[in-house]
Design a protein that fits this description.
The protein has 267 residues and is an alpha+beta fold. The chain folds into 2 domains: 6-208, 2-Layer Sandwich (BirA Bifunctional Protein, domain 2); 216-259. It contains 5 helices and 14 strands. 36% of the residues are buried.
Length: 267
């Protein structure tokens, strides 16, 4: 395993996430690094693992996520939830993505959306991707590893019409340490709602900010291209859409994906 640059114990202030910060120069994947620490029982609840460079990160559906030094903030959070039932695990996803969205709304001053299942968009462009891996024990979530990749800046050659960055939206590159601190604080606020079982509020806020909700667009549904509009998400994470003709269906990530710009968006 790569050697940390340093490990910092943070003041708790009753916050779980960020209780400890492990900083790495380079690592294949912060999620894999976190999993290795868990297997060795060498990590505490709420630990954040930050990498300046990630060479073999993973996005949704096992897509690669490369993070160059200085272009992104990439980190993983290790959580050992307190009695989070298997059927409640999507509320964890809602809490994380909403926390990041809350922060970005204040930073960029533009519409910020949750794109199902775990991305954050500014307008029509992706700015952040999230990969959540839950380990189940019995009826509860034993632990969760949450990988986050936030675009900070692009070179001109990297810029495209699908993705955006903090620099592009704000016109400046913010202090990375302060931005990470602010992200952790925003996620903590939503995580406290999860711990307090404020599921109705999390579900409402998530639904209200779904990208392209109530707009007709194309989807690939079990291999067939259809027109549909997003209505909401089931509490198990499945996407609820209305098809042309009025039929309402709910499907998971293996069966449905939104088609944008003529293709699926790569991570």
């Amino acid at each position: 395993m790569p050697k940390p640059l340093w490990i910092v114990a943070q003041k708790s202030n009753n916050n779980i996430i960020g209780s400890e910060l492990i900083e790495l120069r380079t690592v294949p994947s912060t999620n894999n690094y976190a999993a290795e620490l868990i297997s060795q029982t060498k990590v505490q609840n709420g630990t954040v693992i930050l990498a300046h460079e990630q060479t073999a990160g993973r996005g949704q559906r096992e897509r690669e996520w490369f993070s160059g030094s200085g272009t992104d903030i990439t980190f993983s959070i290790v959580i050992f939830p307190d009695a989070l039932a298997v059927e409640e695990q999507f509320y964890l996803s809602r809490a994380i993505v909403l926390g990041i969205r809350d922060l970005l709304v204040g930073l960029v001053g533009k519409p910020v959306y949750v794109k199902w299942p775990n991305d954050v968009y500014v307008g029509d462009k992706k700015i952040c991707g999230i990969l959540i891996e839950n380990e189940i024990s019995g009826n509860n979530v034993a632990h969760s590893i949450i990988g986050v990749g936030l675009n900070i800046s692009f070179s001109k050659s990297d810029a495209d019409f699908i993705h955006t960055s903090i620099e592009r939206e704000m016109g400046l590159v913010p202090d990375r340490k302060q931005l990470l601190k602010d992200m952790i604080a925003a996620i903590n606020k939503r995580y406290q709602e999860l711990e307090a079982k404020r599921f109705t509020r999390l579900a409402h806020d998530h639904a209200e900010n779904l990208y392209m909700k109530d707009q007709w667009t194309e989807f690939s549904l079990r291999g067939e291209v259809v027109k549909a509009k997003i209505l909401d998400c089931e509490n198990d994470g499945r996407l609820i859409v209305e098809l042309e003709g009025g039929k309402v269906v709910s499907e998971g990530t293996g069966a449905i994906r939104q088609i944008l710009y003529g293709t699926d968006i790569p991570n």
